[in-house]
Amino acid sequence: MTLPETPGTDTRPAPRRRTVVAAGAGAVALSALGAPTAGAADGNAAHGTAVHGTAAHGRTPRAPRLGTGWQRYVQAPASRTVRPVLVLATTGDVRAPEGLLAPGGARTVLRRPRPAAAPRWPEGTVAEASSAHAGNNGNDGRPRTYDAGNAIDGDPGTFWNDDTLGEFPDTLTLTLPAARELSGITVVSNSDGVPTDFTVDVWRDGGWWTAATVADNDVSHRAVPFARPVSTTRVRITVTAVQDTPRGAFTRINEVWPEAVEPVEPPSVTVDFGKVVVGYPLVRFTSASDNSPGVRLAFSETRQFLTDRSDFTRSDQSGVPAQGTDQFAVPAGGADWTDRKGHQNGTQVYADGLHGFRYLKITLDALASDAPAAEPWGTVEIDSVGLDFTAYLGTPATYRGWFLCSDDDLNRYWYGASYTNELVTDTFRQDDVDPRNAWSASLEGQLVLHDGPKRDRDPYVGDLAVSARTLYLTHDEAAEAARNVLADLAAHQRADGWIPPASINAYTLPLFDYPLWWVTCSWDYVLYTGDRGYAERHYPNLLKVLDVWYPSVTDSAGLLSKGLNNTGGYGDYAFLGRTGRITYYNANYVQALNDAAALARWLGRRADADRWTERAGRVRDAINAQLWDASAGAYLDSGTGPVRHAQDGNAIAVTAGVADAGRAASALAHLDATTRRPYGNAFMDNDTLFDGASQRVYAFTSYPEIVARFETGRADSALDQIRRTYGWMDGHDPGITHWEGIGPDGSLYEDAYTSMAHGWSTGVLPALTHQLLGARPTSPGYATWEVRPHPGDVSWAQGQLPTPHGPLRVEWNRTSTAFAVTVHVPAGTRGAVALPGDSGRLTVRGGGRVLWNGRRASARSVSVTGGRVTVSDLGPGTHSFTATTGRG
């Protein structure tokens, strides 16, 4: 879940993946950047290295013994103390930078001389600007001004801020009391956006003369020498472009100096942790000079957005003027410092605390406003850098479910999804959650599923539609994280039945679709866990949201219509500006009604179940009558406005059973023809909703499309979409984890703001387990289950699903003429196996006899269901079946 930002662009081609075929755990898989994704650094090694499923000369090796081999794909660190694996870069005076990688070795030393005093303008110099932002209470509640005089007051903590957002030119004019010879100037700007293009003019012979032109500037301290010295009484800076930042595209200049002063490059070291990690950074300082030298830490999930500022800090949204980094003033005797939220000295030297990142830049520097508590010069000696990893630690021992198949890429994506989800499974803590009024006493200290480790650290129920399934299939003891979120949102249900999407904005963020996801997620929770207590306790919430709130936004055709009941301003998962009859909302409504009916039947509320089932049928018929576009062969995104067709509505129309077989085939073909990109399938087929919509990929809405392709017999196209979507993310920085969204040309769709590890993007994991492997529950707590493989081009697959009764294990392999499957069934459950292939051409054997000869069954438990030979009523124990082409 994210608030809208402008998508970024990264036109770099996908790198060629370098792989290592390994017979054991000693080899190291290399990331797209050539840095180890796992290594022997202290506490940071993965639990093994990927063994590739395709051997030399194109031969596919045998599947390993059931339960072996998958452990080497696990990505979590081996312990909660995580170390960086590589030094990427240094600047300035740095000695032994590699000492940061492990404690007890060489000490890393950063040195910086005390800077000379900044030059000043003569007394009586006056500054004027084309505009100036009105004074306010700043971002910290303390009054601030932004007028032109701040640029020459000698205080780099104040600045001129123009008042024309994104409009240029902006001018700053300095008038001296008497003529002065200038050989250049220095422009010191705010690190939160710097002037990128500007000219410097001087007044000479009754007119303005251009003394210097600067283009593509990206530094906050810019010396601007003139071609030759000029005697003048006036200097004018004309800014024509600035860096766009989360606080807007304004011109911000902190100081202008009357000389061209080249900056002394601050000493810095940039380290790489090998993959995205999350927690509290740790730095062991062994000593420092006695002037309280400052150290600033900047974090980023990608190298593209690694600068002197972090790619994201909660302080950027909470109002603390931290300049986008975490600061620490090092005492002379050193310190073992854990980066936690708060000020080190009164209101000075602020740190943000927990971070989600891959790259860390440590710089000897300090904010001018932090003097004398922290100074930007001196000497600092560091023994090591690390991280106290706070998220769920998914070691092989904690996995209750696993997956393995003949395609090494698919294995990587499955465990990349699991690791992504582990990063978002964390304790809800006041200091670490989204600062936009998201803290809630009712969640404090509880395990939850956040959106992402870096940003939006708040549990949104729409994300749980994917991330909770991922959790149920990997670490069943962490299912409480989903329950905690669902129960808390139910407890904050509004009087009219609407259920909030998250705790953000004190549970008031108005989203139209997320109450439907609460219904579906509640059924999912019960389906995977069999928790009857949860179902009974929150059944009244279910009644209220489906029988009170959604009827209040239903039109005369029986369709949900955003805009009714004052919902025109409500958003959805992507804050999309669409109103009226939307296919996505209504297909989701059908799914939620059917899920609610299933839960009601389980609880014995048959009248409710029948009512919801009947309503789901009416909504389904209305969608097909009102929102099907026969000319395109796909469902409209909206019944009004420009014609477009969305991935979300069309995909869920298939998975929710709205579309019959003909419409499903047509809709999926339309998406293939109009939304296919090298990095996945876009979520819109044109740009009528917003510019670039047809280039944006959300793994969140790609998941139901992938499921739809598997379930309609299009396994090869499902696998192709998986390989494009997840292959792109796996093969681009930061590697392994799954992104919140992908923009044009495969870019980070919201630049640095993009979350590069997002739980809602992990749908590849349940898709590979439930659809490719084919195993899934069909009634609460896996009392009944089904194995219906969709193998596509995969030669073999095996896996384990955690159930309340014990593990359900499945293994299958196929050749050109045969398909063999074995199911290991836990006590207390019964299920069915549906074998792939044309039933009229198959001979099915099991238990030493022919069960199906291509025409008829030899047992009552064998039938043809949905075109597949299905063996039903399988109880505890081991069951093996082989289907061969031809009649026996």
UniProtKB/TrEMBL annotation:
<dbReference type="InterPro" id="IPR035396">
    <property type="entry name" value="Bac_rhamnosid6H"/>
</dbReference>
<dbReference type="InterPro" id="IPR008979">
    <property type="entry name" value="Galactose-bd-like_sf"/>
</dbReference>
<dbReference type="Pfam" id="PF00754">
    <property type="entry name" value="F5_F8_type_C"/>
</dbReference>
<dbReference type="InterPro" id="IPR012341">
    <property type="entry name" value="6hp_glycosidase-like_sf"/>
</dbReference>
<keyword id="KW-0732">Signal</keyword>
<dbReference type="Pfam" id="PF17389">
    <property type="entry name" value="Bac_rhamnosid6H"/>
</dbReference>
<dbReference type="InterPro" id="IPR008928">
    <property type="entry name" value="6-hairpin_glycosidase_sf"/>
</dbReference>
<feature type="signal peptide">
    <location>
        <begin position="1"/>
        <end position="40"/>
    </location>
</feature>
<feature type="region of interest" description="Disordered">
    <location>
        <begin position="114"/>
        <end position="145"/>
    </location>
</feature>
<dbReference type="InterPro" id="IPR000421">
    <property type="entry name" value="FA58C"/>
</dbReference>
<dbReference type="Pfam" id="PF17390">
    <property type="entry name" value="Bac_rhamnosid_C"/>
</dbReference>
<dbReference type="InterPro" id="IPR006311">
    <property type="entry name" value="TAT_signal"/>
</dbReference>
<protein>
    <submittedName>
        <fullName>Alpha-L-rhamnosidase C-terminal domain-containing protein</fullName>
    </submittedName>
</protein>
<feature type="domain" description="F5/8 type C">
    <location>
        <begin position="116"/>
        <end position="237"/>
    </location>
</feature>
<dbReference type="InterPro" id="IPR035398">
    <property type="entry name" value="Bac_rhamnosid_C"/>
</dbReference>
